[in-house]
UniProtKB/TrEMBL annotation:
Taxonomic lineage of the native organism: Eukaryota, Viridiplantae, Streptophyta, Embryophyta, Tracheophyta
Residue ranges constituting the SWIM-type domain according to the UniProt record: 142-184
Organism expressing this protein natively: Gossypium stocksii
PANTHER family: MUTATOR TRANSPOSASE MUDRA PROTEIN, POLYPROTEIN, PUTATIVE-RELATED
Name recorded for this polypeptide: SWIM-type domain-containing protein
Record's keyword terms, sorted: Metal-binding, Zinc, Zinc-finger
Keyword NADP in annotation: no
PROSITE patterns linked to this entry: ZF_SWIM
InterPro entries attached to this UniProt entry: Znf_PMZ (IPR006564), Znf_SWIM (IPR007527)
Biased composition (Basic residues): 265-276
Amino acid sequence: MLFPNAETRHCVRQLHSNFKKAGFQTKELKDLLWKAARASTTREFDDAIDELRKTNQHAYDWLKEKNPTHWLRSHFSFRSHSDMLVNNLFESFNKIMLLIVKKKEEADKWKGMLCPKIKKKVDVNIKDLLRCAPSHASGDKYQVECGPGSQHVVDLVENSCSCRNWDLTGIPCMYALAVIHLKDEFPDTYVQTWYTKQAQLQIYSNFASPIRGPKQWASLSNMLPILSPPLRRPLGKPTKVRKKEPDEPQTTDRLSKRGVEMRYNKCKRIGHNKRSCKGEVGQNIPGKRHQVGAQTQQQAT
């Protein structure tokens, strides 16, 4: 209601969580859902969703009820120049003041024109362009072939490619880079300006201003006291990291004991523990006690 022109998107990870609760819990269906979400063109999406339909008709019907512009990369608009499918980026803005300072300090250390992560993406696409063959069509439009059935149209004026990846992200795809390489131009200049170091420094130059303590505030006699909101703290210890789904890879910082020889601290023997030890402590071993007793009886006889 407040921002009617804003583009609405849903986190695909949350969508998959609801997908599992609906009864579609196999890894095959999960992979097909993500394959459909990641497809950048409608043709790729149609192929992926048709494969999912053949695998499970009910799962297909469940997904068809969702608005495609909310979770499918192939249906996203180009206005935001973002192809993100999850909301991890927004969760990182909880501590905004400290984040701004940290980002500004990081950006000061960057070398080159682009942000480091964006530069890596451009370099990966540059490696892939070697198998592409561009040819000039007319004006600033080019036709690029990259193997059988893979042929796209690149427009350097509109910063657009028919694969949609350049339009979605603002980062030249391998087809566009093949044309840029043919024209012997600098690839970094075709990346959207908000991915540059200069733009990031301008963004994070506006710090959240610090404030003085309550004892230094000016008192107003005719103003009602401002009460703090009621504290509703949930039960249990506060979590520091996001809870992962059961099918997500679980990370741990515990050290592995594989290959380490364990020794029970009572019997001092390697390989023993509280459960496997039969009460042998030090040299006080039942078998040896029996043997010593037998020799003593024989000597006595």
